[in-house]
Amino acid sequence: MMERWPWLLFEIAVNFYQGVLVTYFIDHTLKKKRGIGWTSALCCVAFALCCTTYLFFDMPVTDTWIFLIPLFYALLCFEDSFGIKLLWWALLMALFNGISILCVSIHSRAFGANSDYLQIGTASRVVFVLSSNVVLTLGIYIVTHLKRKTRISIWSLIVFALINLLVEGILDILFALRSQSLLSDATLFLSSIMALSISLLSISLFSTMSRYAERVYEAKRSEDQRNMEKQRAEDLNATYASLHSMRHDLKNHLNIVRTLIESGHKAEGVQYLEKIDSRIFSVFSSGCIALDSALTLKELRMRQEKIAFNCELCPLSDIPIGDYELCSIITNLLDNAIEAIQRHESPPKEPRIDLFIRRVRSMLYIECRNPADPQTIRRQDGVYLTSKSGGNHGLGIKNVEAIVARAHGLASFTCEDRTFIAFISLPCDMG
């Protein structure tokens, strides 16, 4: 028994190495949740211990129940959708078992059917284990460096996952038939090559569809940006016209103020100056020039609609999202707020929109409040929709949610006491 211990330790070390490979694969294909780094080591140890049971108990080599461990690890510790998790888990099983069975068939053909590569304590076994793990390492490394980002539908992801699960089932059946001498090594070799080819072709198609979906998304994003720039240009033209008119009127206003002061009516002159000041729009200074411009234009529109605007900003020189994304969030929120006030059946006497942007430690908070008529607000599938005509119901909120989700933030929308509240939190990179 003492003579077997070095070989058992070798096998256990290999099992732990395979646990590292499995954990590495999951960690590099999915997006892990924050603050749970220790789970990687737990998954690695659990997988290795389950593999080690084969050294002490008589269990079928083709059992794949041990891959439930990386499945639970993926489901519990990562942020991706269920379809993405299922796809990469199924690919892991197909790749892991496919390469192992392929190495078995190659080894059998190279060293003969009577080779002792499955018996612990032989040189043939060492060669087989080391060579198969080298090939497995290369395969996992190549697959994990594929482009992970995808925007294809959840059903497409599930189809790709089912293809790889089917490949895994076929591989298990092939190895079971070969273990019962119902299948030759040559047939096992060709069949495993075909099964792995199907799996790799599915991943190639998945990668192609992902790139196409990404191009479609970028095209849509570019179109949205062009529309935003067009709207900004229109707002700038309106601002210029307003400034031109204001400059023309300012001379008359100054003459009136001068006349009031010279005639001894200083109080009336001060009151008149305050009225003039209330007509001049604010100058925002947040450190983000694009946002300051957008806020100025939105405030001008609010003044035209007789809507008061209360805005509190924090320095935005270092934010977790780009200027375009930040402007998209703010302009969508303010546009929705303005439209909500316009849709009131009995508009409030002094409508006001409140916008707060604060940074607290490692979080950026955005809050927008506006009066809302509950009769003009409805929800569908958890998304707030407006009562406006047309087919673009809820697109503003959907755009905001999409940007926030990409930044790993949270967005909530509530309506309380005839006030619509949008609250967004975005994590900032403290590194």
Quick rundown:
The chain is of the alpha+beta class and 431 residues long. It is 62% helix and 11% strand.
SSE layout and pairings?
Blueprint: H1 5-29, H2 38-52, H3 68-77, H4 82-111, H5 123-144, H6 154-179, H7 185-262, H8 266-279, H9 289-304, E1 308-312, H10 323-342, E2 352-360, E3 363-371, E4 377-380, E5 383-386, H11 395-406, E6 410-416, E7 419-427
Parallel strand pairs: 1-2
Antiparallel strand pairs: 2-3, 3-7, 4-5, 6-7
Structural features, described:
- The chain has 431 residues and is an alpha+beta fold.
- The chain folds into 2 domains: 2-219, no CATH class; 286-431, Heat Shock Protein 90.
- 62% of the residues lie in helices and 11% in strands.
- The chain contains 11 helices and 7 strands.
- It has helices spanning 5-29, 38-52, 68-77, 82-111, 123-144, 154-179, 185-262, 266-279, 289-304, 323-342, 395-406, and strands at residues 308-312, 352-360, 363-371, 377-380, 383-386, 410-416, 419-427.
- The strands form 2 sheets. It has a 5-stranded mixed beta sheet with strand order 1-2-3-7-6. A two-stranded antiparallel ribbon has the order 4-5.
- α3 (68-77) runs antiparallel to α4.
- The longest helix has 78 residues, at 185-262.
- The radius of gyration is 32 Å and the shape is elongated.
- Mean pLDDT is 78; it is low at 386-394.
